[in-house]
């Protein structure tokens, strides 16, 4: 169908843009011999897993459900990390995951004897902060994520074949270089016996200004020094700028400012806008006051703060206008909710100039999660 025929709200995934990102990641794998996994927590749009599988080595999961999704829809390597596994889920995890990463030495002792076929890893925490947003900083004071050096019980190392660290968020390869050095100072003696090192996610590899050369030199240095397989598990970088959220203007009201009420919601459909918070890019618009017509874009929920931001336009908005929020593939579908009984956005594919709805939701999806 044509763009104007799409039902809204709708997340549209751009096959061409996704493929461009995957080609960049595949290039890094080919030049260095490292392996790159999709971190499903950012993007679990399994319709595209067959495409992703052509380029990446597999997926990484945050627990049983994501691991099952990768097992059913992607194949390839299946890595899992969770701060604490449930006994009731571990048998299945051990059946479908080839790499299992533990968050503490106690977890290794509890579960390692039940995971004979998987390669086991330990998440370490170098406590080396390179960013300022505590909610996204695994190295923040008091963090539960990863074993700090002083808590490492060497008796568990007999079980451990690899080490995992994840400390970055939307960052370049310079902070990675510094973090790896900090980790080596503390844990380098263990890396020597490791079969693999997983450098986690948070690498903004597909952003235009990312220093890919530096990343590749870090990977090669680690390969040479420790003889280990190097893994990266980016989420964002896989689908960065590869999706949009389209919405339509439902009504315009006025209270000191002009307010457009849309059929999408920040709270329900792009929660990072309120959580982070940030102002999502909107195609064809600018900051408030730049173009002649400024509107506060908001939603039809009852939450006063469900405001996407203030944007200006060349022409006045009118009911039925379609708006395109950019970079909406990641951390959106996986986080959305039906607060206020809001419908979940449809999911569509953009392939060149053609659009196709690949999934629609209804009342059953709202009721089905309640009782
Ligand atoms: C969040 C996370 C990722 C992916 O992070 P991005 O910022 O989306 O690249 C990878 N690994 C772990 C352990 C994570 O928690």
Give the helices and strands, then pairings.
Elements: E1 10-14, H1 15-32, E2 35-39, H2 49-55, E3 58-61, H3 64-73, E4 77-81, H4 87-96, E5 99-102, H5 105-111, E6 119-123, E7 162-164, H6 173-191, E8 196-198, H7 212-226, E9 229-232, H8 236-239, E10 243-255, E11 257-262, H9 266-269, H10 272-275, E12 286-287, E13 293-298, E14 307-313, E15 322-326, E16 346-351, E17 354-359, H11 363-367
Parallel strand pairs: 1-16, 2-3, 2-9, 3-4, 4-5, 5-6, 6-7, 7-8, 8-9, 11-13
Antiparallel strand pairs: 1-10, 10-11, 10-15, 12-14, 13-14, 16-17
The structure holds pyridoxal-5'-phosphate (PLP).
In short:
With 371 residues, the chain is α/β, with parallel strands linked by helices. Helices cover 28% and strands 24% of the residues.
């Amino acid at each position: 169908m044509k763009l104007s025929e799409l039902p809204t709200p709708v997340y549209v995934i751009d096959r061409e843009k996704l493929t461009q990102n995957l080609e960049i990641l595949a290039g890094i794998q080919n030049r260095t011999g490292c392996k790159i996994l999709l971190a499903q927590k950012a993007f679990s749009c399994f319709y595209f897993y067959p495409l992703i599988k052509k380029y990446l080595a597999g997926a990484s999961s945050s627990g049983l459900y994501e691991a099952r999704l990768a097992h059913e829809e992607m194949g390839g390597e299946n890595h899992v990390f969770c701060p604490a596994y449930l006994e009731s889920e571990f048998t299945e995890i051990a059946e479908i995951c080839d790499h299992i990463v533990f968050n503490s030495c106690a977890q290794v002792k509890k579960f390692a004897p039940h995971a004979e076929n998987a390669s086991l890893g330990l998440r370490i925490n170098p406590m080396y902060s390179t960013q300022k947003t505590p909610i996204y900083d695994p190295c923040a004071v008091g963090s539960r994520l990863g074993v700090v050096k002083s808590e490492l019980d060497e008796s568990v190392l007999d079980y451990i074949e690899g080490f995992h660290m994840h400390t970055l968020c939307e960052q370049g390869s310079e902070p990675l270089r510094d973090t790896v050095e900090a980790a080596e100072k503390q844990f380098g003696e263990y890396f020597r016996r490791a079969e693999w090192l997983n450098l986690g996610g948070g690498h903004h590899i597909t952003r235009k200004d990312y220093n890919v050369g530096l990343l590749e030199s870090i990977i090669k240095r680690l390969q040479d020094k420790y003889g280990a397989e190097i893994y990266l598990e980016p989420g964002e970088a896989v689908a960065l700028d590869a999706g949009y959220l389209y919405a339509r203007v439902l009504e315009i009201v006025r209270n000191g400012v002009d307010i457009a009420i849309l059929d999408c919601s920040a709270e329900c459909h792009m929660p990072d806008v309120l959580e982070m918070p940030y102002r999502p890019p909107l195609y064809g618009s600018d900051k408030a006051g730049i173009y002649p017509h400024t509107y506060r874009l908001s939603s039809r929920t009852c939450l006063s703060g469900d405001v996407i931001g203030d944007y200006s336009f060349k022409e006045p908005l009118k009911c039925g206008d379609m708006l395109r929020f950019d970079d909406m593939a990641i951390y959106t579908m996986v986080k959305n909710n039906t607060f206020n009984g809001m419908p979940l956005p449809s999911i569509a594919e953009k392939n060149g100039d053609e659009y196709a709805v690949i999934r629609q939701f209804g009342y059953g999806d709202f009721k089905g999660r309640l009782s």
